């Protein structure tokens, strides 16, 4: 047996769940060859859209090229190639540019296989789930006659998309047409069936195996294959049972006496590296050898298989609704619709309730292919594996998420930091935060706060303060930094709550006024800050600051709108109602009436009594804050404010903001997979629970945590992405308890 033939039979490794390698991502997939739960696709491929490559658009195989042909890796690039390479080097997530580059390279390169290898290697390192491009890559290698390279590409492909029915099918078809040794071909089929044999959409692979054994006229093996199929609730089960009965009645079927004859060894299918066999295909039941010539023996033989078939059909009836709702089981750069996202959660709920660990792992692996750019599913997978004690699988899934599939989305790194801290990997948690600060989302307030809080929990107060101070120093160097006032507000609050040093906390806020332009949100934070400090309250200090902001003055750079100025005035009046005296209250109310009442219509004032005046305004203000995610007040960051603080300022209901609809247009493969979901409910760390998110969209960060003001993620050095379509969803259900 040659080297490539041995590799086909044995593969690179016996399990895809080893140490994760970002350059050869161990990603499991289930890709429907027909893209529908009804029927099967054409032999050797599927009708997947171009984003997955066209697996049926084979590169013509011609006579082998001469030795060394096409090895000129340093050949000159065309102007178009240079242009496209410059784009993907600057932003490797530009999917459409990558596909254009591949097309241009294929057009220019012809027999320059080194050039083709370069572009495919680079593309597939970024998008390893695109099984169709693995197939096209292998076809290019076959075209120049490099059969050992064809095997190498397919081996890399099944490591990258281990649970893809399609890629295994293509590999098996290649083996059938290349090798004459039945044992080599059967070994490859068995490798494939370990991982995808129980996939509901695995019929094309089983059909190809049946076709091959039918050509070999090995009826006992064929009967054994049917037996294995009938044990699993897969598509077209009725057809398989009918064909089995026909086979048993028309051929001298011999029941298998040695289960190891065709079944893979148990070590070849470990889903958790030695703890549990991957739920590929169970070993055929050991049945005594008996030629099916005796009617009673034949009836008994078929009856055993019929019982398997009935049991499989019963389970199929439970999952068929979920399977039918999966309209896109393959990876795609465009967002999934809400119904399909919710269906994946419901399907996972059902399988987890069923309790079969192997089925759970297999379904999660299918899910994180179709939902590869949604952090919530990766997070759920990690938590599920961790809760069941399978730390290796949890680490593997987290590595894939943070290194490849959602590596540009902040929430996965925030989750990773927290998980590593929980597991005692403090250095790993700090590294995750540092990655956020330096590359993923510099200046992300949530990352700053959580990092500082972690250092405080660890007893490193100096390091906790340093986190704030370093980011504040960076933001001071920026002109009109939006983040700077929010940082000062959070830093002062953090200092007081940790050290109980009111003077230091006030000093931080005073320093802020030297570096930030006063705004409604900053002044609101300052007012709330006074509510949690011990008396005496610095009303004489606050009053002129409030007055300067709410009074229109052409000589100052007052950017607050009239609505913001009126709202701040009301907030200050309520503050004085709690902590001021009669004179300060009178002064503030007189000022409010002078500044804002003249602008109200007389008819409106006649309809409102004096008793309704302030309460109505407070109701309007509360509605403004609840309805406008981008205007969430900094005051929400102060949960310790007195509960009697009315008007909805300190006791905002903790609700997720309604996702805004975006124009329907194709989503580019953006650098942050959309930067974030509609809200960070992915890991259930906040009151809204584990939210079923919309497709990734670069929307503003809502202050739905009850702790942080509005802030959009500072974009990493990447190009913007077109917003996918948002669709209304039912109220999300909580999947996990509190993250913290």
TrEMBL record:
The keyword Cytoplasm does not apply. One of its GO terms (biological process) is RNA splicing. It is found in: Nucleus. Keywords: mRNA processing, mRNA splicing, Nucleus, Repeat. GO terms for cellular component: nucleus. Residues 23-39 have a biased composition (Polar residues). Belongs to the PRP39 family. PANTHER family: PRE-MRNA PROCESSING PROTEIN PRP39-RELATED, SUPPRESSOR OF FORKED DOMAIN-CONTAINING PROTEIN. This is Pre-mRNA-processing factor 39. It comes from Eruca vesicaria subsp. sativa. The lineage of its organism: Eukaryota, Viridiplantae, Streptophyta, Embryophyta, Tracheophyta.
